[in-house]
Amino acid sequence: MADTPTCSCGANEPKRIIFPCAGQANTGQITNLAAVQLTEEGFGSIACASLLAIGSEGLVTNAKNVDEVLVLDGCPMICARKIAEAQGVPVAQHLVVTDLGITKGPSKSYTDEDVEKVVAASWRGEGREKVAAKPGKKSGGNDTGCGLGCNGVC
After folding, report:
1. Strand, coil or helix: 39
2. Closest Cα partner for 53 from 95, 24, 21, 98?
3. Which of 9, 26, 70, 113 is most deeply buried (CB count within 10 A of its CB)?
4. Is residue 71 within a helix (H) or strand (E), and if so which, with residue range?
């Protein structure tokens, strides 16, 4: 029996929210730039960690109901992760920029390569937590029906 092809149209990709710390140091700025790039590339949607910190009801609800939450922290203070945890938002993937070999410094001391390093690590799934799938949620990429009439070949 031949393997059924999986859909490549993106309909089965997990729905993600990306919370960058967006701190004032270069590493915080890198998290924001990486989150913007990841959003543009279709990885997920950027959201405001500050809005999450004040307990915005809609954002907290959305963050608890997406398939995955990616938190990008600039340094070992892990402010964005602490904010998510304080609001009861489960973090599926967490990256710390300084753990990727980028030194914390002044706000404008970063390169495009620094941003790309965080983006690539996100796509590779680095920092992914071992969590069980949410009830009723499909894991992305392994389902055969994409819902767009592409029969798994779009």
Report:
1. helix
2. 21
3. 70
4. strand 68-73
Structure tokens at 39: 């959003």
* Residue 35 maps to a domain: yes
How far is CA 62 from each of CA 11, 101, 106, rounded to the nearest angstrom?
19, 32, 33
DSSP structure string for 2-29: PPPPPP-SSTTSPPEEEEE---SSHHHH
Is pLDDT of 71 > 50?
yes
How high is the pLDDT of residue 91? 98
> 148 lies in a domain?
no
Q: Which pTM value belongs to this model?
A: 0.78
Q: Is residue 42 situated within a structural domain?
A: yes
Rounded-to-integer distance, Cα 134 and Cα 64, Å: 10
34: containing domain: 17-124
Query: What are the beta bridge partners of residue 20?
Result: 72
CA distance 71 to 1: 41
How many domains, the chain?
Answer: 1
| Domain-located, residue 144 | no
CA distance 53 to 31: 17
Among 44, 138, 149, 56, smallest CA distance to 95 is for 44
